[in-house]
Amino acid sequence: MSESGSYLFFVTIFGALIGSFLNVVILRLPREGASIVFPASHCPACKEPIRWHDNIPLLSFLLLRGRCRFCRQAISWQYPAVELAMALLSLALFAHFGPTLLYPIYFLFAAALLVIICIDFRHQIIPDVISLPGIVLGFALSFVNPFLSWQDSALGILLGGGSFYLLAFLYYLCTRREGMGGGDIKLLAMLGAFLGWQAIPFVVFSSSLMGTVAGLWAMAKQRKGGQTVIPYGPFLAFGGLLYLFFRREILLAFLRYIGAQ
Prior knowledge:
This protein is mostly helical. The protein has 9 helices and no strands. The protein has 2 domains: 1-99, no CATH class; 100-261, no CATH class. It is 68% helix and 0% strand. α4 (102-123) runs antiparallel to α5, α5 (128-141) runs parallel beside α7 (182-195) and α7 crosses α9.
């Protein structure tokens, strides 16, 4: 195996291992007072501790055929899905940024977004314990991040959080109902901190488009009409990841569009 191939293999395995830990975070973080460290990994059904050889990312799920070794209860597909997603994100980040400081910075960013996507999709909450430290960390890292300046990061926080806060406030004034959760506002501020203010228009546009399509599908399936509720955080996160990997193409397409007007 070549040196570059060895690097790609290592970062993929590393991503899968981190994905295994993220599963613990996703499962326990929404629980009041739960620790992400103790107790050790165990079967949610029979509470039997999981042996190390049954806790190998992806491989153990396949060898166990998706069932607990002890009680034979089915293992949720979330576990291999998150492990695979983080493995692929790690591989894509390394292929995109190479062995530079950008890889660990945006590895942390992508891991946080993956946790937010899963928790918001299941519980319709975005934990402050991820988004608020994420805002601070994104801004702090902007001083060593060649991807953006600290000014871009600061403006991203203000534009991201401020624009959504204004929209939520105006919606409440018009309807006297909460139309957007505070978690979405903080998440967009976090995206601005890591990606800069330039990312905000695309993230808002793309997430709105994806959310509209998903909302129409959910309305048709649930038959609840205007009472249908879907989490918006995952679409913001997907929009942020799209901008991270396709920033140049997005900006080039925008420049071509305004040049054609």
